[in-house]
Amino acid sequence: MFNPMLATGVIIAKMEDSEPIVTGSCAAYGARNVFITAAHCIPDDVAAATVLLPAAGQNFSIKQYERHETSDLALMWADPLAGGPFTDMFFEAGPDALPGLGSDFLAYGFPSVDDLEGEGMTARLMKGHFQRYFGFSELGGRKFFAGEMSIPAPPGLSGSPVMLAHSPRSLVGVVAANLDSYTTLSSFEEVDSSGKQYREVSKRIVSYGIAAMFTKSTAEWTERLVQQFSLTEGSAQ
Question: Stretch 117-135: mean pLDDT, rounded?
Fold first, then answer.
């Protein structure tokens, strides 16, 4: 039986002349040695990367990765593990049809990380629904079809798998960003003893997570790379 805990992990990236850092979450996808994440979770200056799956007690040295041209998606692959088969230990693509507005989803990842050994990592399963779909533009220049989630996406959750609540193995997107909006609760002006006027405004911040959704083109892209990566020869570890 598929367990998302065993297929979800974190990316530990090492840049030149710096200590390793956790850059986001990821998930085994299509094969045990292929991982999907958000493109921005792979730093431009990364020298080496490791995927750690804490619940499974496994780690993978990433051999190669590829970012999508426009969407905030990336695939990474490592040498295949010895043994297996691992048929129930990776996510698969969800249905071609887009989940309807109000559809429930699950997001599983590591929004807080205390160390690089997995001891202090807190995995969280979040549940929400899709509020709207729209074209999203990131600060880095990426533009993609996005789903707005009814839950926030705190740091570290980026790259996490977004799956259908009624079919947890069916991946429909990846957590990509967090949007903050606010509502003004109260506003008033006062004048101090010197006659200086000032205004105080009370606001409520509302955060929404953004998922890079699978579309026909991104699904074809991931399928092509998964087939390529899973057939790549490598020494078993």
Answer: 84
